[in-house]
Design goal:
5 helices
Length: 160
């Protein structure tokens, strides 16, 4: 006869189910169904990014499509940001923040390296029309590059 296990959260409850991640026994009330099996509430609620690489093909596709959309719509957004002038940094941060959230959601909130790379590249592309001409002219565009980096940073951070 198999040794009986008891829910780690309810020591008096016997169970035959254990968490797919940590292996602790959990009762039917505590167990949480996830894409990767039954988990304890602690592991089912891991911070985002912990499921990195768990994206389904459709979510990967959506991540790329959203990244492309962010790049395309980001170009006029970046243009406007630099027209406004004095709040460039704040607007860049907000734009990157929003872009990161879009990409993160598109990937089913799984995050991970792919979502981070896509959102970072998408935001960089959005700023490229403002960055490339000065570089071509031999001028280092510090006041474009810094807000662009802020935006990329927020985008990557939010899609992790
Ligand atoms: Zn667990
Ligand atoms: Zn329990």
């Amino acid at each position: 006869m198999a040794q009986s296990m008891h829910c780690y959260r309810h020591p008096r409850r016997e169970t035959r189910v254990s968490c797919a991640t940590c292996g602790r026994p959990i009762c039917t009330e505590c167990m949480v169904q996830t894409d990767v099996g039954i988990k304890c509430p602690d592991d089912a609620r891991l911070p985002r990014g912990a499921l990195a690489g768990a994206m389904k093909p459709a979510q990967v596709a959506r991540t790329f499509i959203t990244g492309a959309a962010v790049a395309i719509f980001g170009i006029p957004v970046a243009y406007v940001i630099f027209q406004v002038g004095f709040v460039t940094f704040i607007l860049s941060a907000l734009a990157g923040y929003g872009a990161g959230i879009f990409v993160h959601r598109a990937g089913g909130r799984n995050g991970g390296p792919l979502a981070m790379a896509v959102s970072g590249v998408a935001v960089a592309i959005a700023f490229a029309p403002k960055l490339v001409p000065p570089l071509m002219a031999g001028v280092f565009p510090t006041f474009v590059l810094l807000p662009a980096l802020v935006a990329v940073g927020f985008a990557v951070y939010n899609s992790r």
